[in-house]
Design a protein that fits this description.
This protein is α+β, with helices and mostly antiparallel strands and 291 residues long. It has 6 helices and 14 strands. A hairpin with a 3-residue loop joins β3 and β4. α1 packs across α2 and α1 packs across α3.
């Protein structure tokens, strides 16, 4: 089942319980986070496909527009989360003020950035390690004739890295070429709350997302730990406004122990196995926020 399928099912389940669209979206997103230990980054385009109102909700908060820089080589993009929490933002972004950054995420071997426009369109910019699919272009397209489908375009950026841009916005090929030319090396900036956290011995960062008013991250003993379902040795942490926090559990959850801590207007939630409950509590208590 894809994240789009999961989001649709979750939204349907929440609509009857929460008539308010923002409550329904928050609850649906939280269910996916708790169940799959994934971030809102995985469902931003899905939300965009479901309607303008949902994108408008995800577009809440003031995303900081990064300063313009030339759209030069993207060879400096790193797809490894690293050990620091929060990690440095990836050195890639769409430098077009008409598209608002909703969330960025890093995991082993890929980076994702999601944008919204006019509260109804979504765009995903992904950087992945390795060789692109056979249908990908050999380089970033520079003419409309190179783009057969404006909804999705892939190209090989370097021998060991490729790009994938998808959008829900109808546009002409020439318009997309112009937009792709605005992909540059300025790191994205989001007004997210997490300032620092003390990573427990034996754990390392394997996934991190940053969005207005929220952060999600996963710590595991190794970078290649199972993600579906999540390895029971991992720790999954969510920082969000208290109004969107949740305490629900799910059958056969590999991380059944749910703890939370209030810090001002925010709630820090952490999921772990019973064996890691104490380490999870220490991790939770080490979290500091920017406000």
């Amino acid at each position: 089942m894809t994240d789009l399928d999961e989001l649709r099912r979750a939204l349907r389940a929440e609509e009857a319980l929460a008539p308010d669209p923002e409550s329904a979206l928050a609850a649906a997103t939280r269910r996916i986070r708790r169940r799959r230990a994934t971030s809102v980054a995985a469902v931003t385009l899905s939300v965009a496909a479901l309607g303008a109102g949902a994108v408008g909700l995800l577009d809440r908060g003031a995303a900081v527009t990064p300063p313009a820089s030339p759209a030069g080589s993207t060879s400096a993009v790193s797809t490894a989360p690293g050990g620091k929490v929060p990690p440095a933002a990836p050195a890639v972004s769409l430098q077009d003020s008409s598209w608002h950054l909703l969330v960025w995420s890093v995991e082993p071997h890929y980076v994702n950035l999601h944008y919204g426009q006019d509260r109804k369109y979504g765009l995903e910019l992904a950087v992945r390690e390795g060789t692109a699919p056979a249908t990908a272009l050999p380089a970033k397209p520079t003419s409309a004739a190179q783009i057969p489908d404006t909804r999705s375009v892939m190209w090989q950026d370097t021998p060991d890295r490729w790009f994938w841009v998808r959008t829900t916005k109808p546009m002409k090929a020439a318009e997309l070429v112009t937009l792709l030319a605005k992909i540059g090396t300025t790191p994205p900036v989001v007004d997210a709350p997490l300032k620092s956290v003390r990573v427990p011995d034996g754990q390392q960062l394997v996934a991190f997302t940053s969005e207005p008013e929220a952060n999600t991250f996963i710590l595991c003993p190794d970078l290649d730990a199972d993600r579906a379902p999540l390895d029971s040795r991992c720790l999954s942490v969510f920082v969000s406004l208290s109004s969107t926090a949740g305490s629900s559990s799910f059958p056969n959850d590999p991380l059944p122990v749910h703890q939370h801590r209030e810090i001002g207007r925010y709630t820090v939630e952490i999921d772990s196995s019973s064996a890691n409950e104490q380490a999870a509590r220490q991790l939770m208590n080490s979290v500091t926020l920017t406000r």
